[in-house]
Specification:
By secondary structure, the protein is of the alpha+beta class. The protein has one domain. The chain has helices at residues 41-52, 57-68, 74-90; strands spanning 8-11, 17-22, 25-30, 35-39, 55-56, 93-96. The chain has a three-stranded antiparallel beta sheet. A three-stranded antiparallel beta sheet has the order 2-3-4.
Length: 104
């Protein structure tokens, strides 16, 4: 999946997430779908970031790396492309259409 920079991502409408942590892993229960997801730290930080506010991929990566104290690199950007595709497939996130350019 190619990450489109202008797309803003947010949690799916009506998402109601309940979190639990065990031994460095987090489990999130989505009340809306009834699904439970086991998340490693980057994936958990990504979802928690969108709980706070929608973000473009670049904003999202910046927030997650700051939260976890890690450096953004090509490997992480590739991992994010995978996470976005997976979260979208699971119905946890939605892409907001970018605003059209304003005519002057």
């Amino acid at each position: 999946m190619t990450v489109r920079p202008a797309v803003r991502w947010s949690l799916a409408p009506g998402a109601a997430l309940r979190w639990r942590s065990w031994d460095g892993l987090e489990v999130v229960y989505d009340e809306r779908s009834g699904d439970t997801h086991l998340l490693e730290p980057v994936a958990a930080a990504a979802i928690r970031t969108l709980e706070a506010a929608p973000a473009t991929a670049d904003e999202w990566i910046a927030c997650v790396t700051a939260r976890l104290g890690i450096a953004p690199d090509d490997e992480l950007r590739g991992r994010f492309a995978e996470l976005i595709a997976r979260f979208d497939e699971l119905g946890l996130i939605v892409a907001d259409a970018p605003e059209p350019p304003h005519a002057d």
